Amino acid sequence: MRNDWKMSKPPATMRAMVFEQVGAPLRPVELPVPSPAPNELLLRVEACGVCRTDLHLLDGEVAIAQPPRVLGHQVVARNVADGRRVGVPWLGWTDGDCSQCRAGRENLCEHARFTGCDIDGGFAEYTVADERFCFELASDEPPEQIAPLLCAGLIGYRSLRMCGDAQRIGFYGFGASAHILAQLVAWQGREVYAFTRSGDEPAQALARELGAAWAGSSDEAPPQALDAAIIFAAVGPLVPVALRALRPGGTVVCAGIHMSDIPAFPYEILWGERTIRSVANLTRADGIEFLELAAQAGVRSHVTTYVLEDANQALGDLRAGAFRGAAVLVI
Ligand SMILES: [Zn+2]
Ligand SMILES: [Zn+2]
C-alpha cells in the first residue's frame, strides 16, 4: 500500500469543486495540483466530509474573505511523499504567539486560518496542509469512516468537554455530530437525550440504535431534568428550550459556528446558575484526545457517500435533512 502511494506521481492538474460566490453552487473546475510550502505536505485526498459549516459558507453566514476557494475541512488523505495517512481539520494554521495561543487557546487564535475557508480544503483530488496541524490517522479504516470524526466528531467532543461531568446530556439536533458523540457518551456510561425536529422519526430511531436513553422532538420536555445540553442545530430558539430542560447549575453549549437569533427569554430560566456558552473551533489537543477515545469506544460513522462532482447534491441533501448521520465525498 505504502509503496503504491509513493510511486503515484501527482499529475499537473486535478479536479476540484470550488466556491466562487455566496448563493451560487460549487463549480467543478480543473486546477493545478498545489505545491507544498515549507512545513506543508502535498496530500492525495481519499475522502472529505461535508459539514453544516459548508452550508453557512455557501450562504454567506460565515464569510470567505478571498474566493475562489476549495471547500472541505474533514480531509482524510495520503501524504504523497511517503503514503502516510493524515487528517486535515478545520484549524489549518495559527500564529502560535498571540495572547490566545500563548494561553493554550489556539482555537481562538487572532490570526487563525481555517481549512476550506481561508485555505483550500479537501473538495479536490489533492491539497496541501501544514503538517503541524494534521492528525496521524489509522491506515486500515475506510476513509469515509474517519472523515466525519474530523469536524463533526471533534468539535462535538470539544462541546462535550464543556458539559463537564454531566450525566444526563441533551442533544438538540441529531445529525453528523450528535450521532458520533452519542456513541461516545453511551460508552462512557452517561445518558443521551436526543431531541430532533418534530416528526423526524429516522433521526430518533438512529439515536435509540446508538444508545440514547430517550429520543423525542424538541418541543417535548425530557422525562428528567438535564445536567447539560448541546445545541447542534443552527436554531437560536432552541436556546431557551434547552434552558427550560436544565436543572439548576446546568450548562447549554452552542456547538455551531452560526446560529439564528436567540429570542428574548425570562431571566428565571437562566437563574439558578445555569450557563449558556458557545464552542469555537478546536485545538490540536482536542483532536488527539478525541481520535484516541473514538477508537477506544469503537465509534462508527453512519455515512452517505457521494463522488466529488456530486458535492452540490451532498450539500443539498444535508440542507434538506435527507440522510441519517454524515455525508462524505469519496474522491
Ligand atoms: Zn465542520
Ligand atoms: Zn495565535
Relative strand content? 25-35%
Largest sheet: 7 strands, mixed
- Tally of separate helices: 10
Order of helices and strands: HEEEHEEEEHEEEHHEHEHEEHEEHEHE
Question: What is the structural class?
Answer: alpha/beta
By oligomeric state, this entry counts as single chain
CATH class of the largest domain: Alpha Beta
Envelope shape: globular
How many strands appear in the DSSP assignment?
18
Radius of gyration: 20 Å
Q: Which bin fits the share of residues in helices? A: 25-40%
N→C terminal distance: 17 Å
How many separate structural domains?
2
- Poorly predicted spans: none
List the helices and strands and how they pair.
Layout: H1 2-7, E1 13-19, E2 27-32, E3 40-50, H2 52-58, E4 69-70, E5 75-79, E6 85-88, E7 91-93, H3 99-102, E8 113-114, E9 126-130, E10 135-136, H4 143-146, H5 152-161, E11 168-172, H6 176-187, E12 191-196, H7 201-209, E13 214-217, E14 226-231, H8 238-245, E15 246-254, E16 275-278, H9 284-297, E17 303-307, H10 311-320, E18 326-330
Parallel strand pairs: 11-12, 11-14, 12-13, 14-15, 15-16, 17-18
Antiparallel strand pairs: 1-2, 1-4, 3-5, 3-9, 3-18, 5-6, 6-10, 7-8
The site of one zinc ion (ZN) has 8 residues, from helix 3.
